[in-house]
């Protein structure tokens, strides 16, 4: 694979597909989009198989000096690899989800999605600061159109809010990037990740990056665009929004804020924890009272992403690995949950929870899969979310017991709102005649949800497949952060070593000592 | 410097003046029947001038070799760069005009002649290194523009636009002339180099007034806040091809002139004018963005958009560095393509009778009746808003990069944050075209010349434009450096 520009090829395939879709009939456009995304999925798998675990940090590096001021530099490490895999895995599912539900302007719709895919892969693969920015920012245009053209009743408000909110966040980041490049004299991300910026300047730079990533993530209190965007977007739009776009924020933290500005990250760690703690509790409570299914899942996304941020800002291996795992898991599971909503929305055209009930009777297959994803969202052991949430919370526990405690309530509250949702939709009596008459999953829906369920199980049962590629990168990041890591609030008292004779008593005492 | 080489340096201007006079005679004898032929010839003349200037820009001509008539006129690479943009934009204004005027049979043979005269004036403006040349060029351009604004004689709005433009333009010329006379009074010369030398060190209050009045006069010409009031009315009232012309070529000329005046003539007093320019820049960005929000007419909206863009361009001037000047030139080049493209798209929007469509409400759902046209206009709008991967982003990028490098981080942050307000109204056009139910007003077809021009500008501002960044940046750097040679 040496020297073959596979990343550029992965960008080119959907781009060509997008142009072709623009000029194609509805049926042809669907096929083109499906084929293009499947080719990209295959390329993604090739990428994964050829990724040398434990090898060089940056692999598949490409570089071409095409532009003034920045270059076409691509390359991935383990973290980027996993996020690219997530993107290419979700894309064919998105196309599948739109197969029947999108009937107007199909060509343009598929083109917008393929363009999204180009930009998402570009964001994760860019090795040049400004190239990253261009990909990052460009994703606004197709998403704006997806929400605005194919969205629900209040789509225009939602599309504006999405666009302007995220734009305001990221323009400030551009100024910070310009400053950093001016000082460091390079646009190369790996070099910048090892560059020590003056500690004084880091604060403002960090805030500028934070403005962008916090909105994208989204963190409380700048999350309000998300429920609107999710509710109005078409199903596949929600999947891609929750599955990948939000991860751009997390990826930004892990790629920029933490390694480039470690001191400022440490300085603001308390602040991030505080916002995350509020987010977990507040948005979970908000989710509990939603009557709109998509809104409920949107708020649950905010809560889950808050656990990602505490994990990221725990400055240790568990926390960082956990947050990446949780990002991947959330990408799969929240995507799947939006699909589950989409499946019944396509049939009954309402997201009102009260309009459903007792679906387990007439849609048993659906009920099983929906239950599986509900459990995964709660963090049931054996599913992907458990691995991510457990590691994140274990990581944060090492530095802040309070943050761990409060974020831990998110799991309980998550169980509450998800189970409550499931009970109202799938169990209980079939009080609505039309909901009771809905047909079960067809083959297309079964394949899409089945694939997601398989991936979720794989990640939950054997997470090593996904942990291995990123292990070295996380270790590098932790080493980079070690100088700045905040002090833990737990002060362990080491017990005195005791002679073997008093073994039983000593063990007892040591246990008491350790609990302080 | 002998007379012959001086004449060689002003060859493009000679060609322009001779051909415009000859064409004027042709127009007088042959009448309006010949207007199409005259337009074609005028285009060729502009093309010839373009290719006469182009090698000079690429070579980066500068220094004493470029000075003609003892410092009255300088044909350096900077002037050349501006001239290339001016000739290209003027050519576009000629190409899109005939089919627009033909519908009302108001295409007159004067139109191409006036456009040529305006181009000549602008060409003089950007080459002026003496206050007198500056004024002659400015007035030549302005007088032609006043007539062009009122070109649709039977249209009240057009007549009003012409009158308004004339009255306010005359006022601005007066202010400028007053500033120039003060400058002459306090420095004893009208030559930029001599003015620069005389204004070294502490500056008297009188000389400060001179700087302020000159800048105020020029701010009017580039329609920067607080001298922007005329812009929406004139843009709305003028015939659309003329508006397209106003929004592009004279902007380039006036900005280039402003750059030369402030960086050369007043170059030693940068601290004196910097605050003014800084205020004008931010005010233009913000007023341009806020003013556009409530507009129902797309030409008025574009007027505010041009005010907004001028603000971004001026950020480059605030830095006062070579990078800043180069960034301004790059921005101008991209701005021309975006604005010309938008106006071409606007000219192409006609209802079933062929009457121009100007109301934003009337282009609702354009993406369904005319997908290609809507896509091009949407690209222009995203580009004007500065959203990557469209090329408009690059203009903002280089300007802000120059500002950050010159340590104006706060200015850059405020400016770019204000650009988000601007994004709102550009998005509105996209929203109306793509999200709203079709109004089915826009009908009719356009000729191939419109499509060709639109395709060129759309291609330029598409992501493919980034491939040009190296070349464009290089040429602009060369041009900007020549501007600073005087300082050395």
From TrEMBL, chain A:
Superkingdom, taxonomy of origin: Bacteria
UniProt GO MF annotations: NADH dehydrogenase (ubiquinone) activity; NADH dehydrogenase activity; ubiquinone binding
Residue ranges annotated for the NADH:ubiquinone oxidoreductase chain 4 N-terminal domain, each copy included: 65-121
Keyword Membrane appears in the UniProt entry: yes
Cellular localization per UniProt: Endomembrane system; Membrane
E.C. no: 1.6.5.11
Entry's transmembrane regions: 6-24, 31-51, 71-94, 106-124, 130-150, 162-181, 201-219, 231-254, 266-289, 296-317, 323-345, 366-387, 399-422
Segments forming domain NADH:quinone oxidoreductase/Mrp antiporter transmembrane: 126-408
Pfam name, any one: Oxidored_q5_N
Assigned GO CC terms: endomembrane system; membrane
BP terms from Gene Ontology: ATP synthesis coupled electron transport; electron transport coupled proton transport
Membrane topology label: Multi-pass membrane protein
EC category: oxidoreductase
UniProt KW keywords: Membrane, NAD, Oxidoreductase, Translocase, Transmembrane, Transmembrane helix
NCBIfam families: NDH_I_M (TIGR01972), PRK05846.1-3 (NF004499)
UniProt family annotation: Belongs to the complex I subunit 4 family.
Protein name: NADH-quinone oxidoreductase subunit M
Protein's organism: Altericroceibacterium spongiae
Automatic annotation (TrEMBL), chain B:
Residue span(s) of domain NADH:quinone oxidoreductase/Mrp antiporter transmembrane: 128-422
Tree of life domain: Bacteria
Catalytic activity: a quinone + NADH + 5 H(+)(in) = a quinol + NAD(+) + 4 H(+)(out)
InterPro entries listed in its UniProt record: NADH-Q_OxRdtase_suN/2, ND/Mrp_TM
Any Pfam family matching the protein: Proton_antipo_M
Membrane topology qualifier: Multi-pass membrane protein
Keywords for the protein's UniProt record, in alphabetical order: Cell membrane, Membrane, NAD, Oxidoreductase, Quinone, Translocase, Transmembrane, Transmembrane helix, Transport, Ubiquinone
MF GO annotations: NADH dehydrogenase (quinone) (non-electrogenic) activity; NADH dehydrogenase (ubiquinone) activity; quinone binding
Membrane-spanning ranges: 6-30, 37-57, 77-97, 109-128, 165-187, 207-230, 275-294, 301-322, 328-349, 372-394, 406-427, 448-468
GO cellular component terms listed in the entry, alphabetical order: endomembrane system; plasma membrane
Localization of this protein: Cell membrane; Endomembrane system; Membrane
GO terms for biological process, alphabetical: ATP synthesis coupled electron transport
EC number(s) from the headed UniProt entry: 7.1.1.-
Chief location bin: membrane
Record function comment: NDH-1 shuttles electrons from NADH, via FMN and iron-sulfur (Fe-S) centers, to quinones in the respiratory chain. The immediate electron acceptor for the enzyme in this species is believed to be ubiquinone. Couples the redox reaction to proton translocation (for every two electrons transferred, four hydrogen ions are translocated across the cytoplasmic membrane), and thus conserves the redox energy in a proton gradient.
Family: Belongs to the complex I subunit 2 family.
Subunit organization: NDH-1 is composed of 14 different subunits. Subunits NuoA, H, J, K, L, M, N constitute the membrane sector of the complex.
HAMAP family reported in the protein's UniProt record: NDH1_NuoN_1
Protein name: NADH-quinone oxidoreductase subunit N
Organism of derivation: Altericroceibacterium spongiae
Lineage: Bacteria, Pseudomonadati, Pseudomonadota, Alphaproteobacteria, Sphingomonadales
Gene: nuoN
């Amino acid at each position: 694979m040496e020297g073959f520009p596979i990343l550029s090829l992965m960008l080119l395939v959907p781009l060509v597909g997008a142009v072709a879709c623009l000029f194609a009939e509805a049926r042809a456009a669907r096929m083109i989009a499906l084929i293009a995304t499947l080719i990209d999925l295959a390329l993604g798998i090739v990428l994964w198989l050829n990724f040398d675990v434990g090898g060089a940090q940056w692999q598949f590096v490409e570089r071409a000096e095409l532009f003034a001021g920045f270059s076409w530099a691509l390359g991935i490490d383990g973290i980027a690899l996993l996020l690219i895999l997530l993107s290419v895995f979700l894309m064919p599912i998105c196309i599948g989800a739109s197969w029947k539900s999108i009937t107007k302007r199909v060509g343009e719709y598929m083109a917008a999605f393929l363009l999204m895919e180009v930009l998402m892969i570009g964001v994760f693969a860019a090795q040049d600061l400004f190239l990253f920015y261009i990909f990052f920012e460009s994703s606004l245009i197709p998403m704006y159109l997806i929400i605005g053209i194919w969205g629900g009743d209040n789509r225009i408000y939602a599309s504006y809010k999405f666009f302007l909110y995220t734009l305001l966040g990221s323009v400030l980041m551009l100024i910070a990037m310009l400053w950093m490049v001016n000082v460091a004299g390079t646009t190369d991300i790996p070099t910048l990740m090892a560059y020590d910026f003056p500690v004084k300047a880091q604060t403002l730079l960090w805030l500028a990056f934070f403005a962008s990533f916090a909105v994208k993530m989204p963190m409380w209190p700048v999350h309000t665009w998300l429920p609107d965007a999710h509710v109005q977007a078409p199903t596949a739009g929600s999947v891609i929004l929750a599955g990948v776009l939000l991860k751009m924020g997390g990826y930004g933290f892990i790629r920029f804020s933490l390694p480039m500005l470690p001191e400022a990250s440490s300085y603001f760690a308390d602040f991030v924890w505080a916002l995350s703690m509020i987010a977990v509790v507040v948005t979970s409570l908000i989710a509990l009272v939603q009557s709109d299914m998509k809104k409920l899942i949107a708020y649950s996304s905010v809560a889950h992403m808050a656990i990602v941020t505490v994990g990221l800002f725990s400055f240790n291996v568990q926390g960082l690995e956990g947050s990446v795992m949780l990002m991947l898991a959330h990408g799969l599971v929240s995507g799947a949950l939006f699909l589950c909503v989409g499946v019944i929305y396509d049939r009954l055209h309402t997201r009102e929870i009260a309009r459903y009930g007792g679906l387990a009777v007439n849609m048993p297959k659906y009920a099983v899969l929906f239950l599986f994803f509900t459990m995964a969202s709660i963090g049931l052991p054996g599913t992907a979310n458990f691995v991510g949430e457990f590691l994140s919370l274990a990581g944060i526990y090492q530095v802040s017991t309070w943050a761990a405690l409060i974020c831990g309530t998110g799991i309980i509250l998550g169980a509450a709102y998800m189970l409550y949702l499931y009970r109202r939709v799938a169990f209980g009596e079939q009080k609505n005649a039309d909901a009771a008459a809905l047909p079960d999953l067809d083959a297309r829906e079964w394949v899409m949800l089945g694939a997601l369920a398989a991936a979720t199980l794989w990640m939950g049962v054997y997470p090593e497949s996904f942990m291995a590629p990123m292990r070295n990168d996380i270790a590098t990041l932790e080493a980079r952060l070690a100088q700045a890591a905040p002090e833990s609030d737990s002060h362990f008292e080491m017990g005195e070593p005791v002679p073997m004779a008093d073994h039983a008593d000593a063990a007892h005492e040591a246990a008491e000592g350790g609990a302080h | 410097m002998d007379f012959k080489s001086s004449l060689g340096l002003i060859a493009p201007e000679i060609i322009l003046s001779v051909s415009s006079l000859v064409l004027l005679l042709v127009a007088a004898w042959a009448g309006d029947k010949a207007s199409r032929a005259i337009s074609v010839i005028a285009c060729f003349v502009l093309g010839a001038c373009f290719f006469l200037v182009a090698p000079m820009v690429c070579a980066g001509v500068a220094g004493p070799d470029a000075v003609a008539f003892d410092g009255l006129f300088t044909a350096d690479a900077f002037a050349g760069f501006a001239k290339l943009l001016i000739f290209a934009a003027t050519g576009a204004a000629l190409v899109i005009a005939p089919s627009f005027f033909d519908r009302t049979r108001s295409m007159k043979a004067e139109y191409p002649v006036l456009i040529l005269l305006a181009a000549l004036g602008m060409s003089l403006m950007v080459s002026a290194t003496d206050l007198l040349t500056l004024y002659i060029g400015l007035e030549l351009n302005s007088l032609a523009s006043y007539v062009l604004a009122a070109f649709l004689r039977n249209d009240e709005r057009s007549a009003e636009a012409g009158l308004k433009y004339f009255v306010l333009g005359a006022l601005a010329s007066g202010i400028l002339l007053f500033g120039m006379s003060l400058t002459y009074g306090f420095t004893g010369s009208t030559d930029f180099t001599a003015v620069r030398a005389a204004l070294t060190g502490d500056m008297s209050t009188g000389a400060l007034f001179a700087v302020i009045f000159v800048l105020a006069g020029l701010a009017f010409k580039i329609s920067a806040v607080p001298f922007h009031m005329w812009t929406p009315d004139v843009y709305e009232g003028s015939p659309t091809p003329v508006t397209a012309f106003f929004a592009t070529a004279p902007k380039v000329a006036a900005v280039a002139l402003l750059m030369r005046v402030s960086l050369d003539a007043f170059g030693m007093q940068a601290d004196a004018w910097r605050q003014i320019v800084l205020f004008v820049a931010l005010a233009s960005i913000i007023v341009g963005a806020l003013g556009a929000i409530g507009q129902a007419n797309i030409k008025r909206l574009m007027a505010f958009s041009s005010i907004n863009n001028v603000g971004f361009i001026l950020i480059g001037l605030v830095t006062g560095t070579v990078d800043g000047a180069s960034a301004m030139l790059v921005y101008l080049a991209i701005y021309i393509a975006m604005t010309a493209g938008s106006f071409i798209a606007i000219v192409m929007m006609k209802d079933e009778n062929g009457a121009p469509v100007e109301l934003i409400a009337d282009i609702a759902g354009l993406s369904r009746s005319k997908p290609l046209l809507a896509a091009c206009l949407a690209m222009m709008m995203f580009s004007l808003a500065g959203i990557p991967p469209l090329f408009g982003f690059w203009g903002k990028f280089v300007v802000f990069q120059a500002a950050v490098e010159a340590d104006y981080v706060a200015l850059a942050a405020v400016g770019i944050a204000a650009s988000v307000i601007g994004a709102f109204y550009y998005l509105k056009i996209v929203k109306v075209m793509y999200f709203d139910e079709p109004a089915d007003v826009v009908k009719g077809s356009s000729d191939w010349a419109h499509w060709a021009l639109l395709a060129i500008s759309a291609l330029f501002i598409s992501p493919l434009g980034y491939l040009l960044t190296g070349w464009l940046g290089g040429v602009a750097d060369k041009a900007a450096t020549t501007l600073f040679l005087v300082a050395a």
